[in-house]
Model the fold of this input.
Amino acid sequence: MKTDLGDNIRKLRKERGLTQEQLAEVFGVTVGAVHKWEAGMSSPDITLIMDIADFFDLSVDVLLGFELRDNRMTELSGRLKQLRASQDQEAVREAEKALKKYPNSFEVVHESANIYSAFGMVGKVDKKLLSRAMELYDQAIKLLPQSTDHKVDESVIYGEIATIHMALGHIDKAIDLLKEYNSGGKYDNKIGYLLAMQNSKEGDIFLSYSILNEIDRKFHTVIGKAFLLIRNGAYEDAIDLLRWGIESDLIFRSDDKINFLDKLHCYYLVGISLAQLKLKDKDSARKTLISAVELAERFDKDPDYDGSNLRFVSIDASRKAIDATGQTAVECIDNLLLRIKDPELTKLKESISK
Done:
């Protein structure tokens, strides 16, 4: 019976980005043998056919040409992630097995690097595992154009490499890498921490910028999560979260003067007022919204957007907070109400403004 075995082996080999030499090495045969298989001049024995089918994640019938199907790289990558998350000791062995099958797959190479990195840092640092992880991260960078994960870019992978250097005690190398790929200040916290551990005053600058970035991140996270909670009927949870947003900022006040945190707190108060309305507590909702409006008016009389005035922030240059939701705090409240589109809250605001 005629099969498509030779053509399929060649096609599958090329899909994996393997040379005939590499495939020959995997199965312990000569390059000439692989050439003859693909040319249809000879066929591997049945035991080897089964091994080849397993290597390419196919059934023997599929390999022989009765049906071809896509490989299972994504499925395999998912399994590797599960093994890493569960700290399964089989992870490293499975990673090497996967790398032999898909040496040019970004998904497999990057996840295998994550496995070696994770297991290299469990307990006593394993230099051999971490060295292998760095090799794989370097390979992953070359394969990055394949990636469909928008959360992973070159700076992320170099950050992962920097973490390995930290574990190995190569602190200066880690700092240099993090500085080079610190787009948007994403590594300010780590750079500042490492410099601080070296008693370097430079660390204070990075940590100060990190504090400002974390305040901004916390604001958007809390506001976004709180309004989702409100939409889902978890009104008391939303109130607790928004109050925490305000209370956790208090430590950054160096005095009682108005600063840009007050403008952020206007948002929190509007959210609390909305949740109180949903709980049918109109008196509390009214008081809270009045507090928001009064705070906004105080801020607008003497606005201060300079983050360098906050406690724990040690930077010489002015760091202006940017708010695209409105030029004034009062305008921000009005714009927020337009986005919320809650008739009852809008009516309450109008009654306060009269």
About this structure: The chain has a mean pLDDT of 91.
